[in-house]
Amino acid sequence: MLQKSLTTLSDVIIYDLEDSVPPSATDKNGARDRLINFLTSRTEELPPSERIAIRLNSINTPFFRQDISQALQLPSIKTFVLPKIHSPHDLHIVSQEIYTHSQLGSGPVVRDEPINIVASIESARAVFNLGGIAGWQSEHGPLAGGKLAGLLFAAEDYCADTSVIRTPSRRELLYTRSKIAITAKAFGLQAIDMVCVNYKDLKYLEEECQDGRELGFTGKQAIHPTQVDIIQATFVPSKKEIVRAARILHTMAKAHSSQKGAIGLTVEGGPTEMIDAPMIKQAENIVRVAKAAGLAIPEQFD
């Protein structure tokens, strides 16, 4: 499985030391040792470090400190996914461990960039404390203590904690998903939507991706390689969205040169929309994401 991970086209590969490993010390320590050996022996085959993350065991387990100690010695890992973050205090514990190792100088790695921390939101307490979690900053500074880069929604853990009953409609998770996405945007963080556990139902996956994007999530976790293409295709603007956004920017640029602040615009035979400053910003966001994804942006219009 480790070797197979190198062939995936996902934006980020998350190597999991938590729930995918049985809970015994033998299994946990063995999984960590195998992963560390793999990442140190395959340095020439590994993707860029921006695409590699590791999900550690949670801070209240006996495995956390050894996990983070070993991970900090690998230059190929720049992102830690931290499960069961319930409050800002939990992030302070993580940051203190990063800082302690940086002060001890353990291992050969000298980092000139912060460790990115992705907080996994898995409980009622976490949702209650979401603003504090999203606004957290390391008391040691980002380079020495890490920086928060994103919020990730672990829906199944959240349902287990709250007794929320999962349904195909996802209606019961609308409030929580919306709050996570909005809070992440308020603090300039990535918002990563839940896993689609129906991994063989690709149509359902596409629907779940679409409403995740509509809620404001910037990406989605994949639990199986077959999900990657659909997730990536859904979390970028469609050709129709790109054309509309580019037309808005092109037309508004002409309107502004004529000292007009708002115009009516009809795209592809649809209704005439009133376009002004907020819709320009939306169009700019769509074009920015499309460019980052390497998608074509039309430059000429009739």
TrEMBL record:
TM region positions: none
Residues in HpcH/HpaI aldolase/citrate lyase domain copies: 1-225
Pfam families to which the protein is assigned, alphabetical: HpcH_HpaI
Keywords on record: Magnesium, Metal-binding
Annotated Gene3D superfamilies: Phosphoenolpyruvate-binding domains
Keyword Cell cycle: no
Signal peptide: none
Cofactor(s) of this protein: Mg(2+)
InterPro entries named in the record: Aldolase/citrate-lyase_domain, Citrate_lyase_beta/mcl1/mcl2, Pyrv/PenolPyrv_kinase-like_dom, Pyrv_kinase-like_dom_sf
Protein name according to UniProt: HpcH/HpaI aldolase/citrate lyase domain-containing protein
Protein species of origin: Somion occarium
